[in-house]
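User: Can you predict the 3D structure for this chain?
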Amino acid sequence: MVQQSWCVKIWGVRGSSPALGSNFLEYGGNTSCFSVDLGDALVVLDAGSGLMALGEQLMSKKRRRVDIFISHLHLDHVMGLFSFPLLYSRWAEIYLYGSPNTVRELAHLVEPPLWPIGLADCQAKVRLQEVRTDKPFSLARGAAPGLTVTALGGSHPGGCSYYRLDRDRRSLVYALDCELTGDAARRLTRFAGGTDLLIWDAAFAPGDLKPGWGHSTWEQGITLGQTAGAKRVLMTHYSTGYMDDFLREQEQLARQADSRVQFAREKMVIQL
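Assistant: Here is the predicted structure, written as structure tokens:
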């Protein structure tokens, strides 16, 4: 049997807040959102403002089920959820995954007075799924047979979850909003071991790193990717102020250090 390839598409690349204007068109200005089409399931990683563009595509294709993994509740990672069009479609089925605290607070975030209606009142069938760290699990209700998901708690103010997807000798690791303090580098190296694609928090250029902010650099991502044996490393979650010209320069420096590195651009597609 021919194994189904994974189609990874990028919908949002920014951290903190969307970046608007002509200086942000090449790499993109929406906040974090990635989709992974497995053929028999669609996994979405984070619900930043890029989720709205993905939602428009899903509406046109009448994609019924979506499984969305939330790394944490900082607004740049959930702001797209409020206007996600599938929430208001009777035929849609949406599964939202996150740590117990994330799931508990998410239900209070998307409800009055912060939003006109709550998740329980949406027309779509919305299911909240708690995720435990370091214990592999499957998608809810038997979707995507053979797919294993593992979560890892990360170093970020207020906490954060990183996710690893594994099936048919393919794997992807999503590790945004991470600061390599304490034993974080060792834990992430083991977590990302041998992965086909490591999606990395390159919020800051090497000279701009701010200790205590819970973020990393592309330089650290290269080192960790090499140590973990990752086949490719995708840099993303750029600081809002980093314009296209600056990111282009940083990407050139990063690729000189490691040719397997790419900088994420919105609408970029990666086949695994």
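The first strand starts at residue 7 and ends at 12. Helices lie at 51-61, 100-109, 184-191, 218-228, 244-257.
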